[in-house]
Structures are given as structure tokens and as C-alpha cells.
Amino acid sequence: MDISELYLKIQSQLDQQLPLAVYKKPGTNEVNCFLQNDDYLHEVSSYDSSGFVFAPFSNSEKTVIIPDTESSFFTSIVPFTAKDLKYVSKNSSDVFVEDKERKAHISLVNSGIQAIENSTFRKVVLSRKEQIPFSQSNALEVFQRLVDLYANAFVYFWYHPKIGMWLGATPETLLHIDGDNFSTMSLAGTQPYKGSMDVSWEAKEIEEQAMVTEFVLKELADNVNTIRRSESYTHKAGTLLHLKTDITGTLKSNPQSIKNIIEVLHPTPAVCGLPKEEARSFILENEGYDRKYYTGFLGELHRFNDGRSSSSLFVNLRCMEICKDQALLYVGGGITKDSIPEKEWEETVKKTETMKRVL
Ligand SMILES: C=C(O[C@@H]1C=C(C(=O)O)C=C[C@H]1O)C(=O)O
């Protein structure tokens, strides 16, 4: 199907207020979409169906699926634009953000550092949300701009009339499964891209990323036959750089394993902390707002008749919730004993740029 025809179908789905998930996987130029036939809210618990899953950070919200049996699936090719985002020398101080938000985030980071010093946990990912005036009717255009700008990201537009509207361009894979083969990644540590990939990383970033790798390797051990990890390397995500390690292997053959693996991995210390439960409690008690689907996960789930699965799930980062007349941008960063609160604030401001560029 022609891409303009696909966008017309999506617009008509939106006009009828029916659920949809439109997405482009990293490094491809294929836009896929599920358009649900009615507005029923399908929840997932066992991951034994097929469709597009949208899951929250914590169980305060519902895990929703647009089932393939209840929807039409379309795909189309967009021309490769190969736009490489140039370094824009914009100081974060140029971006207007309320001083109140800055103070609140710095105070949150300070309490995170304090809890680490008291040995409550080793790492916690602390976040905030920022409001930008925006008209919901422009959401599909924003998706098209995200597709144009972020070739290496998982770019998506998700809508359910009973839940809301979300858009994002995430650099982070939660889990790919194809039969017995799986892959995931450990992604953490952030610095602005200034035109070169040849950068050095400080001990704080090396340590916080190593914690994620260590967690993934340890937690997956019981579910895998083999597991391998790459060296960590610098990965570009829009105007930011992260440290990344690829983790691949084979799963033990067990039809239930996708559920086990999701439960083991989500939320990883890349978006929650280490140890997981202590960090999660701190986040829920201290962040002072509901993350909803930010730092949850989303993507395709295919379950075959023989119980085997193939799925591509991504962590919901660099995302925003679209309300009637505003966009809510969600951003955070990993806190360790070496964090400097002012720098952590700046990092969240830089992360908002991924979205601000397309609004
Ligand atoms: C939490 C976010 O990103 C995560 C945290 C990172 C960090 O602490 O450096 C880097 C990449 C992501 O794993 C976010 O983008 O909101």
C-alpha cells in the first residue's frame, strides 16, 4: 500500500476514535500498523496471544493488546531520508524550563543519592514530566516527522480511546525473540552528540551501564541455554550518545518462556534501578507523579500454534503522552553514588530535545 494511502487510513481510524498502533522498527523503512475494528479494551496477562502490546511501568495501569484477530494489519514503505541529526550547539539553558521543575528534580536526585549512601540500593532511575502546549490533531504529522528524523529508533504512535495517545522514538530494545533465539541490550550512560562518535566515558557512566549488563546476564541465566555479550560501545540516539552492550543467545525450550523473560527483565536497571524492588519502591514513593506507560514496553507479539513465539518489544523511552491541548514529555536518568544533581537535570533537559524537535 502507498504510504499516503496508509496515513489516510490511520487518520480515518483516529476520526472514528478507534484504537491503533503504527510503528517503524529501527533501521527499516517499513511502516506497519494495526487498526482495531472496535474500541474494546483487550488486556494481556499471559502473553499467549498475538498483536501489538502496550505495557506500563508499574501495574497501576493496564497492559493492553491490539489483537491481530480483532484488527486489520497494513504495511507500507517510506523513502529513506537518511537525515543525520547535526550537532546543534544549544545550551540547555537556552531551553526554557520552569525553575521550579529544575529545583524539584535536583531535590529528587539528592534524595536518590542519599538513599544510595544509606545502602538502600546501588542505582535508581529518576524521572519527571514536562508539559508543552500542543494540539492533538497534529499527532499523526508528528509521527511522520519522528520517522524522518530517527532512522535508528523504534518510532511509534499508539492510541486507545479508553487509555490515551502516546508517541515516541525509543533507542532501547527490551527483547527480541524468534523461536529459540533471543536478543536484548544493556543501554545506559548519556552524553550529547557533538559530531563525533569517538568519545570517552566517565567512570560513573561505565559503572551504571555495567550494572545493567550484569543484571541482564544474571537474571536471564535460568531461562537460557546459551548467552553471549558484546563489548560495550557508543551508540547514537538522535542528538545523544549512550553506552550499549548487545546480549544474544538461545532460550530453553518452554512455551511459557516469553512471559518469564519479560517478567525477569522488566523493568531493567536502565529504567528502574538495582536491586529492582528497592529502586521501584523508591520511585513510586518519591517521584511524585505517575509514569503511566513511560518506561513500560511495547511492540509486536506473535504466538504460533505450536507455542513458539516471535516478538519485538521495546522500552518506552523518548516518548510523550498527547492530551487534547498539550504534550507531556517524560524523561529520566540513572542515579548512582557519583551523580551530580545539576548534571542529571541537564541530562533530562537534553533528553526532552528528542521530542521538542518534532513538536
Ligand atoms: C530513562 C531514560 O533513558 C535511560 C537512561 C539512560 C541514562 O541514565 O543514561 C540512558 C538510556 C536509557 O536507558 C530516558 O530516556 O528517559
Automatic annotation (TrEMBL):
<dbReference type="InterPro" id="IPR005801">
    <property type="entry name" value="ADC_synthase"/>
</dbReference>
<dbReference type="InterPro" id="IPR015890">
    <property type="entry name" value="Chorismate_C"/>
</dbReference>
<keyword id="KW-0413">Isomerase</keyword>
<feature type="domain" description="Chorismate-utilising enzyme C-terminal">
    <location>
        <begin position="103"/>
        <end position="351"/>
    </location>
</feature>
<protein>
    <recommendedName>
        <fullName>isochorismate synthase</fullName>
        <ecNumber>5.4.4.2</ecNumber>
    </recommendedName>
</protein>
<dbReference type="InterPro" id="IPR004561">
    <property type="entry name" value="IsoChor_synthase"/>
</dbReference>
<dbReference type="Pfam" id="PF00425">
    <property type="entry name" value="Chorismate_bind"/>
</dbReference>
<comment type="similarity">
    <text>Belongs to the isochorismate synthase family.</text>
</comment>
